[in-house]
Amino acid sequence: MDDGVLLVDKPLGMTSRDVVNKVCKILKTKKIGHTGTLDPNASGVLVLCVGPSTKIVQFLTSEDKEYVAEITLGISSDTLDLDGEILRREAVSEFSEEKLLEVLESFKGASKQVPPMYSAIKINGKRLHELAREGKEVERKERDIFIQSLDLISHLKFEDGMSKFKIQTRVSKGTYIRTLAADIGEALGYPALMSSLRRISQGEFDISDSHTLEQIEANEFTYISKSDAMKSMNHFEITDSDLMKRINNGAIIDRVNESDEDVALYYEDKILAVYKIYSKDNMKMKPVRVFRDESN
């Protein structure tokens, strides 16, 4: 049985669901989940959990993601990328790379971001992009985000009244690069949009370890085991066999470390369970998910 985490290099022009459906067909399985969507106009790392490994999807969605994006100044759209309806054009006057670097620096760290209307967020049971296509705009709550790194990786290009440059950025879950592009443009005094996007990593999963659909079709790929994949989250190795048996039975146990985060518990390098702090006694932990004797 197919079981494990499969890293796919999603091509342009396909939705994440398209990729899942394609891989389901190739692997002849219906049991595949993904841990973070990519828009059709974006490429890069798409983390798929196959077979029994779909049980770990929920634990792999909160990781930081790293992107390479091109930003175009002098033009804006309703979708904040090239797929949307053009809303505004404004000729860009030449400015220094130093000014751009100062603006990029100002976006690093903790901040708040308003999600775009063209997104999959649900409000009152309906996705924002569905409302946007109906010509409706609703108020969206700001989200806390964290931009760990934001680097300029190309020279500024000025052409046809517009300017283009590429950034590489590592961001927290829920950060929209399209919105970041528009906000950077606003800080520079111009309309802006995201003109290309490639995800190069998600947590510990890197584009260099990803497989194209053609490689998967040719059976030229490898799975990452549940045990290896879960080490991307906070984890702890149990050495006591009696404690291991209690964890396998889903028992409430004494706290194993100082972290308040959920922790993946291992025994002999195999994933046993994910535990969290027990609300009735913060010196103890209770199970979120127990994997028992499943293949790891």
Topology overview:
Elements (H helix, E strand, L loop, with lengths): L3 E7 L5 H12 L4 E3 L7 E9 L14 E9 L1 E3 L8 E4 L7 H10 L2 E5 L8 E2 L2 E2 H6 L9 E10 L4 E3 L2 E10 L5 H12 L3 E11 L2 E2 L6 H5 L8 H4 L5 E4 L2 H8 L4 E2 L8 E5 L2 E9 L2 E10 L6
Parallel strand pairs: 3-13, 15-17
Antiparallel strand pairs: 1-3, 2-3, 4-12, 4-13, 5-6, 7-10, 8-9, 10-12, 11-12, 13-14, 16-19, 17-18, 18-19
N-to-C series of helices and strands: EHEEEEEHEEEHEEEHEEHHEHEEEE
Percent in strands: 35-45%
Radius of gyration: 22 Å
Oligomer: single chain
Q: State the major sheet.
A: 10 strands, mixed
Report the helical percentage: 10-25%
Mean pLDDT: 91
CATH architecture of the largest domain: 2-Layer Sandwich
Taken from the alpha-carbon principal axes, the silhouette is: globular
CATH domain class name of the largest domain: Alpha Beta
| CATH superfamily placement of the largest domain | Pseudouridine synthase
The CATH topology of the largest domain? Pseudouridine synthase
Structural class: alpha+beta
Query: How many structural domains in the coordinates?
Result: 3
What's the tally of helices? 7
Number of strands: 19
N→C terminal distance:
12 Å
Q: Low-confidence parts lasting 5 or more residues at pLDDT below 50?
A: none
